[in-house]
């Protein structure tokens, strides 16, 4: 360290020899009392008083870590060892002051400050924890001092406090002087670098303007071949994207390497690290869940040996004769699969096989379902509502058990299961966990069934309404009042029935909304439009015209 960090220089040589001989560290010296210093280190009263005052000053400096500047944090980092001096530039670049130092985590040290070595990270975090402990101890001591304010100190204690205060004030004065000098140096350095950057920017702009004008003039003068024109342009190009050697040498001699250069190197290291991580993530295709899934499926379903990957001979044999593997593919599908290569071809073959298998199973189960539907229709029994979601799925889709794979299969083939949802809705359902996914699919199926029954019922009623009007037209022609009263009576019954159905629908929607806040109410509003053919109905009441 340098400046205020050299507390060892304030200790007498004889006292320092005793400290080193007993193997006492700085942290232990701060914890030792005056009596322990005299007894354990065999110091005289004057030496113990002087050492105690110096360590109190050091403890106060550590307790005031929140007031440290970026330069003081960098100096503190250098006191941890020569290996840690390499991180000083990174700490200065990210403006890590004392207050920010206490909030650093292991992730910050790795991602932002570039501390990649585990031992260095653990050492820095250990020292930060020690600084937090010192701050907490100092704050707690201040509270205890305020609590014991009523106890009057003795004369010796007052004199000791005065000496400590004088030492502390002297230390604060040294710190302030050091900060003023640092600020002056930083200001002078910033002005110099600003002038150099301005001069460099002007030089680069002049070169850019020259590059834009000279090739055009050279091209107008030279009527040679294309190769000669290119060679002439290259001869005229004088752009060299680097710092002026004289300015760079001056900055390095006075202030070390420039901040601009260090910032570029740090950004380059961070970019290279992110690029390597991206390459690693892109090359992790062999460990994806989808690859494991179709590799296992090919092994079980097609009998391929996939331990060392999928061989091209397996793919060629499958595409040449898919019927040998109990898979029916059209010529267009085979051509499309042959055009793909690598993982895309494997995934496409996997999706084609599972789709064909699903359709085959569905065709095989269709006669059984039809027979059972006919049997249930003859018996006239209304199936009761399933007690649980598992019973609903097992009874409707004839599953042995409900698992995540069957739910994903249902979503992948939603149209085959009469579940009409958009791709965005299907994607949201796939992202849910198993329990929530099961409930959401159940509500979607219930809603689809309700809307289909409602639409079918409305179509039947609309057809019946049209037939009723066709039957009432001859009656209305015979008598003036008979036809009108019959139509009005029918409309009253119709509107009453529609209000009852609307009330039942609102109750069902409220029930579904309580279970699922994300449920959106169906905005379908049926409205009958019948062309009036009878002259008597054309002059009827507003109620009839509304119908």
Short précis:
With 547 residues, this protein is mainly α.
How many distinct domains? Answer: 4
Measure the end-to-end span. Answer: 95 Å
C-alpha geometry: elongated
* Sheet/helix structural class: mainly alpha
CATH architecture of the largest domain: Orthogonal Bundle
Q: Low-confidence parts lasting 5 or more residues at pLDDT below 50?
A: 1-5, 225-235, 380-386, 475-480, 528-547
- Record field, number of beta strands: 0
Radius of gyration: 43 Å
Subcellular location: Cytoplasm
Coiled coil: 27-61, 166-214
Protein name: SAM domain-containing protein
Region (Disordered): 361-388
Summarize the structure in words.
- The chain is mostly helical and 547 residues long.
- The protein folds into 4 domains: 3-146 and 154-198, DNA polymerase, domain 1 (Orthogonal Bundle), CATH 1.10.150; 202-274, no CATH class; 288-382, no CATH class; 446-546.
- The chain is 72% helix and 0% strand.
- The chain is built from 24 helices and no strands.
- Helix 4 (45-63) packs across helix 9, helix 10 packs antiparallel against helix 11 and helix 21 (434-478) packs antiparallel against helix 22.
- The termini are far apart.
């Amino acid at each position: 360290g340098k400046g205020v960090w050299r507390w060892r220089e304030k200790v007498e040589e004889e006292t320092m020899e005793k400290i080193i001989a007993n193997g006492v560290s700085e942290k232990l010296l701060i914890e030792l009392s005056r009596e322990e210093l005299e007894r354990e280190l065999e110091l005289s009263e004057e030496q113990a008083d002087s050492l105690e005052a110096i360590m109190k000053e050091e403890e106060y400096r550590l307790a005031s870590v929140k007031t440290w500047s970026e330069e003081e944090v960098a100096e503190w980092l250098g006191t941890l060892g020569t290996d840690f001096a390499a991180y000083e530039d990174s700490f200065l670049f990210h403006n890590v002051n004392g207050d920010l130092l206490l909030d650093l985590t292991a992730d910050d040290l790795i991602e932002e400050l570039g501390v990649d070595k585990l031992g260095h990270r653990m050492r820095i975090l250990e020292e930060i924890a020690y600084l937090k402990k010192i701050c907490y101890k100092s704050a707690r001591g201040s509270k205890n001092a305020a609590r014991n304010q009523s106890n009057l100190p003795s004369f010796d204690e007052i004199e000791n406090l005065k000496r400590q205060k004088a030492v502390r004030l002297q230390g604060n004065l040294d710190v302030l002087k050091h900060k003023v000098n640092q600020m002056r140096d930083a200001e002078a350095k910033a002005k110099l670098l600003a002038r150099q950057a301005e001069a460099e920017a002007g030089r680069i702009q002049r070169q850019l303007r020259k590059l834009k004008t000279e090739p055009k003039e050279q091209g107008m003068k030279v009527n040679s071949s294309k190769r000669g024109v290119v060679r002439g342009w290259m001869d005229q190009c004088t752009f060299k994207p680097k710092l002026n050697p004289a300015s760079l040498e001056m900055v390095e001699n006075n202030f070390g390497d420039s901040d601009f250069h260090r910032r570029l190197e740090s950004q380059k290291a961070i970019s290279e690290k992110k690029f390597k991580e991206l390459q690693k993530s892109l090359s992790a295709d062999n460990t994806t869940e989808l690859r494991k899934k179709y590799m296992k499926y090919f092994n079980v379903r097609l009998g391929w040996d996939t331990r060392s990957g999928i061989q091209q001979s397996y793919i060629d044999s499958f595409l040449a004769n898919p019927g040998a593997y109990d898979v029916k593919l059209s010529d267009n599908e085979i051509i499309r699969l042959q055009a793909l290569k690598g993982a895309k071809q494997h995934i496409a073959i996997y999706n084609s096989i599972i789709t064909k298998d699903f359709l085959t199973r569905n065709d095989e189960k269709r006669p059984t379902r039809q027979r059972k539907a006919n049997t249930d229709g003859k018996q006239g029994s209304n199936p009761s509502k399933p007690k649980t979601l598992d019973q609903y799925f097992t009874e409707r889709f004839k599953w042995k058990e409900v698992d995540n794979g069957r739910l994903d299969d249902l979503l992948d083939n939603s149209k085959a299961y009469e579940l009409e949802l958009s791709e965005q809705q299907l994607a949201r359902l796939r992202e849910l966990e198993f329990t929530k996914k099961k409930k959401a699919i159940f509500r979607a199926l219930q809603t689809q069934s309700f809307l289909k029954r409602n639409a079918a019922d409305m179509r039947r009623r609309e057809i019946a309404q049209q037939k009723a009007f066709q039957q009432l037209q001859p009656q209305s022609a015979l008598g003036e009042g008979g036809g009108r009263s019959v139509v009005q009576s029918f409309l009253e019954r119709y509107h009453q029935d529609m209000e009852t159905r609307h009330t039942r629908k609102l109750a069902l929607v409220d029930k579904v909304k309580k279970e699922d806040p994300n449920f959106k109410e169906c905005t379908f509003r049926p409205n009958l439009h019948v062309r009036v053919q009878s002259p008597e109905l054309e002059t009827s009441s507003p109620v009839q015209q509304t119908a």
